[in-house]
């Protein structure tokens, strides 16, 4: 399995102030050894908030795929060491293999929880980043995601996925309910309660669209968290697999009628729907948009077995993309534009995850010999893939880098969690 290269490059002084930049590309993977001691709790902040902050902050860094977060059990530095360079014994951090040291202090002022993050180069002892963020006192995880995002941006010069949202389905008995949550699955909010609701997707505006059987037939509904579900597509025998265009102005979905299913494109409110495939007795499903909104990848059995195809957004220029295997499904187009992740059934009848390069057709396997792994969805920056896996029993949500490395479960409670969809990056503030 291919890994990706992480190299530290010195940027000229007039550009980015000599900060090391993590360039993620290539074939040799070396994460940055990072020491992140527990946050310092200052005036007003309580231990419970600090623990919640610490869990979220550490998970963000660990799951990011670019840091090797060092085990605190091996730290030899004084636990009472300060937050400034002059108070830090950097040789102690070098002894445990750290190349960078990140320290955080937490303080509460009224209804606000404030976090201050300082990043140091262990080799030079210089402070490379100092940033402060605020969050409501009852939202320490929100503060953790914000500070982790600042650290990620410092090293990569691109947004992290830590401030984004996801949606997914929880299976409990005969019920399938839709949830929306923070990127790590925490802070979850149920949108439905009881019944069968499947295949949710997040719109760029934060609405969730999903297929629901609330009227004893599969129609597509849209719902704002905290609001009521409204019908969006009620045509045909079955409407499913909705996907929003990157600008949020259009939707694509599959509509079954008789013995066929076709891909339709419509305005985001469902108006002006038009079929862009036409294969009598054929099944066309699971549309996913290219990041520029000009193309759509989808699944079709027009060649005899379910395979991934690509076409222009008006239905022209259809091209088959996958040729290996006889059951390929659930494509998701990377926001970076180069890869499409998909689920495939292998020769052992197990489901695993793969990517296919849109330009070259090269297929790369991401998971193997770890139960069933399904429904991949890319992070907003295209660096991570979330998926559902039953490798430890019941289906759980996992995340990994886009080349299949650093596979870690989301820190959610036990349950059957299915069909995740990762929302777009939040607007810059």
TrEMBL record:
SUPFAM superfamilies for this protein: TolB, N-terminal domain (SSF52964), Tricorn protease N-terminal domain (SSF69304)
Main location: periplasm
Residues covered by the TolB N-terminal domain: 21-127
GO cellular component: periplasmic space
Keywords: Periplasm, Signal
Cell compartments where the protein resides: Periplasm
InterPro entries (alphabetical): 6-blade_b-propeller_TolB-like (IPR011042), Tol-Pal_TolB (IPR014167), TolB_N (IPR007195), WD40 (IPR011659)
Domain of life: Bacteria
Gene Ontology BP term (one): protein import
Secretion signal, residue range per the UniProt entry: 1-17
Family from the record: Belongs to the TolB family.
UniProt-listed HAMAP family: TolB (MF_00671)
Protein name, entry field: Translocation protein TolB
Naturally occurring in which organism (per UniProt): Corallococcus exercitus
């Amino acid at each position: 399995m291919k890994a990706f290269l992480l190299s530290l490059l010195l940027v000229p002084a007039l550009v980015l102030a000599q900060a090391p930049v993590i360039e993620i590309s290539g074939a040799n993977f070396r994460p940055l050894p990072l020491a992140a001691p527990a946050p310092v709790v200052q005036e007003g902040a309580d231990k419970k908030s600090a623990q919640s902050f610490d869990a979220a902050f550490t998970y963000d860094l660990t799951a990011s795929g670019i840091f090797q977060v060092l085990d605190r059990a091996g730290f030899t530095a004084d636990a009472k060491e300060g937050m400034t360079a002059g108070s830090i014994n950097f040789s102690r951090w070098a002894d445990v293999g750290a190349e960078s040291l990140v320290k955080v202090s937490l303080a509460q002022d009224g209804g606000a929880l404030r976090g201050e993050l300082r990043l140091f180069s262990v080799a030079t002892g210089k402070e490379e980043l100092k940033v402060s963020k605020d969050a409501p006192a009852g939202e320490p995880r929100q503060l953790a995601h914000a500070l982790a995002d600042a650290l990620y941006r410092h090293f990569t010069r691109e947004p992290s996925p830590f401030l984004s949202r996801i949606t997914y389905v929880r299976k409990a008995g005969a019920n399938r309910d839709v949830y929306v949550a923070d990127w790590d699955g925490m802070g979850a909010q149920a949108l439905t309660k009881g019944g069968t609701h499947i295949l949710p997707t997040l719109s760029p505006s934060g609405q969730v669209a999903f297929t629901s059987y609330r009227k004893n037939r599969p129609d597509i509904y849209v719902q704002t968290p905290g609001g009521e579900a409204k019908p969006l597509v009620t045509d045909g025998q079955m409407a499913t697999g909705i996907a929003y265009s990157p600008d949020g102005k259009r939707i694509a979905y599959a509509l079954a009628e008789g013995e066929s299913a076709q891909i339709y494109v419509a305005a985001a409110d469902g108006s002006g729907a038009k079929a862009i495939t036409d294969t009598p007795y054929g099944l066309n499903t699971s549309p996913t948009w290219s990041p520029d909104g000009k193309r759509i990848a989808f699944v079709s059995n027009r060649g005899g077995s379910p395979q991934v195809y690509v076409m222009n957004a008006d239905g022209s220029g259809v091209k088959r993309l996958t040729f290996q295997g006889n059951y390929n499904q659930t494509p998701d187009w990377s926001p970076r534009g180069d890869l499409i992740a998909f689920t495939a059934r292998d020769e052992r009848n197990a489901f695993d995850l793969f990517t296919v390069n849109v330009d070259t057709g090269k297929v790369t396997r991401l998971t193997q010999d770890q139960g069933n792994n399904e429904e991949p969805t890319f992070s907003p920056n295209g660096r991570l893939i979330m998926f559902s896996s039953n490798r430890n029993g019941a289906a759980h949500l996992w995340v990994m880098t886009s080349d299949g490395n650093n596979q870690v479960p989301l820190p959610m409670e036990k349950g059957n969690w299915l069909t995740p969809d990762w929302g777009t990056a939040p607007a810059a503030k």
